[in-house]
UniProtKB/TrEMBL annotation:
This is glucan endo-1,3-beta-D-glucosidase. It catalyses: Hydrolysis of (1->3)-beta-D-glucosidic linkages in (1->3)-beta-D-glucans. It holds the Pfam family X8. Residues 1-27 form the signal peptide. InterPro entries: GH (IPR017853), Glyco_hydro_17 (IPR000490), Glyco_hydro_17_plant (IPR044965), X8 (IPR012946).
């Protein structure tokens, strides 16, 4: 299943919409959301971290590389982070010495200030059909696990996401089996690694890539007659469960039905090309909303009843550099952090309690009802931002800059960008919140994400 998560610049962020518990464990599970960065208009990582922490119920982030800017941006945020080894690096880190260096360079400088939770070794490696990558995948996983142990770290998991292309059969679900030869040579050893290390088998079920016009309601969790599996006598009312149970059947066939399953990606685009069947806002709302409600219910699947699955929805942002219309419109949020539609994860009263409400498309709101702030854009240089501070904090700017002076509540972090952010917003608010008052010679950008942190509160 060729899909959207093949670039190493992609990130994934996890939403905590509900705290769930598997019957045999007390480990909490979360709904997640993939956070891609194939775009030229996204906010900087530190702003994303603030938005996630202060404005949403998200508590986890997964990035598809080990970008140090991202890791720094999420430091001290209490948001769990999963990092990824690029596919191209897999052969190298299959050797212990290289794995030790990778951990030293990409984990140790940030951990535990940044709460790194998992290393994903590559992404959908089997789907690449690259024999070298496939042969080195499990050795790389073992080497990184050993490197973490050598560094005295036992809390970081090692896994790798798989597409459903790893199956040679999936319909009906009870017939699920891994591709021949790969089952014993590749997947049995990988599953044994997961069993021994108590780590999950990560898969990417996408009903969006498997539906037909006749099975659209089945894919969207809408009322339908279902698909009957004669071998088990079970009726499937949604494709998501059927795909998960096909994976489970393949694992059980090899004797590894005790290994946990994590849903690494799933989602539905809100817009597509005019002739693209089933792609619209209503269907995106239906799929993601029903998915969230279903996985948070704890009912599990027909073959895995009363189980919950850590599930990552694709994606956080609409990404304007993706190659097709639908790929550019998987986002739950726009780049300015306003919702494309509501999935019940905002802290402004739209999300109710621990159980997410059914998402509804967001109606346009009057501009004066939305709080906005002014912050530096990602490309602004320190020189330009210092000039902004000098202007705003001068008699001409007429703004009280004492909060960013030494001893002030916004002095730390003591950086030009942080101080400029406070000063530019103070000027923007003092002058009426007009967009042109946040221009600062193309170095400012208006956001709906409150940049306040700790004791440092930004005016709105």
């Amino acid at each position: 299943m060729a899909k959207l998560s093949e670039t190493s610049s992609k990130l994934v962020i996890f939403f905590t919409i509900c705290s769930l518990f598997v019957s045999q464990s007390t480990a909490a599970y979360s709904i997640g959301v993939n956070y891609g960065t194939v775009a030229d208009n996204l906010p900087p990582p530190s702003q994303v971290a603030s938005f996630i922490k202060d404005q949403t119920t998200i508590d986890r982030v997964k990035i598809f590389d080990a970008n140090p800017d991202i890791l720094r941006g999420f430091a001290n945020s209490d948001i769990y982070v999963t990092v990824t080894v690029a596919n191209s690096d897999i052969p190298a880190v299959s050797k212990l010495s290289a794995a030790v260096s990778w951990v030293a360079n990409n984990i140790l400088p940030f951990y535990p200030t940044t709460k790194i939770h998992r290393i994903a070794v590559g992404n959908e490696v089997i789907a690449t059909a690259d024999k070298t990558l496939i042969a080195h995948l499990l050795p790389a996983m073992k080497s990184l696990h050993a490197a973490l142990n050598l560094a005295g770290i036992s809390s970081i998991q090692v896994s790798t996401p798989h597409s459903l292309g790893i199956l040679s059969s999936s319909e009906p679900p009870s017939s699920g089996r891994f591709r021949r030869v790969y089952d014993r040579v590749i997947f049995a050893p990988i599953l044994e690694f997961h069993r021994q290390t108590n780590t999950p088998f990560m898969v990417c079920p996408y009903p969006f890539f498997g539906f037909t016009p006749n099975t659209l309601d089945y894919a969207l969790f809408k009322p339908n007659g279902g698909v009957f599996d004669h071998a088990t006598g079970m009726n499937y009312t949604n494709m998501f469960d059927a795909q998960l149970d096909a994976i489970y059947s393949a694992m059980k066939r090899l004797g590894y039905d005790d290994v946990d399953i994590v849903v690494a990606e799933t989602g539905w685009p809100s817009a597509g090309d005019p002739d693209q069947t089933g792609v619209n806002m209503d269907n995106a709302v239906s799929y993601n909303g029903n998915l969230i409600r279903h996985v948070c219910s704890g009912e599990g699947t027909p073959l895995m009843p009363n189980r919950t699955f850590e599930t990552y929805v694709f994606s956080l942002f609409n990404e304007d550099l993706k190659p097709s219309t639908s790929e550019r419109n998987f986002g739950l949020f726009r780049p300015d952090l306003s919702p494309v539609y509501d999935v019940g994860i905002l802290r402004n009263g739209q999300s109710g309690g621990t159980t997410p409400t059914m998402p509804t498309a967001m109606a346009p709101s009057p501009s004066d009802s939305i709080k906005k702030w002014c912050i530096p854009n990602e490309d602004a240089s320190d020189e330009a931002l210092q000039a902004n501070i000098d202007f705003v904090c001068s008699s001409s700017g007429g703004v009280d800059c004492s909060p960013i002076e030494e001893g002030g509540q916004c002095f730390d972090p003591n950086t030009v960008r942080s101080h400029a952010s406070f000063a530019m917003n103070a000027y923007y608010q003092a002058n009426g919140g007009n967009n042109f008052d946040c221009d600062f010679i193309n170095t400012g950008v208006v956001t709906v994400a409150d940049p306040s942190y700790g004791e440092c509160r930004y005016a709105a």
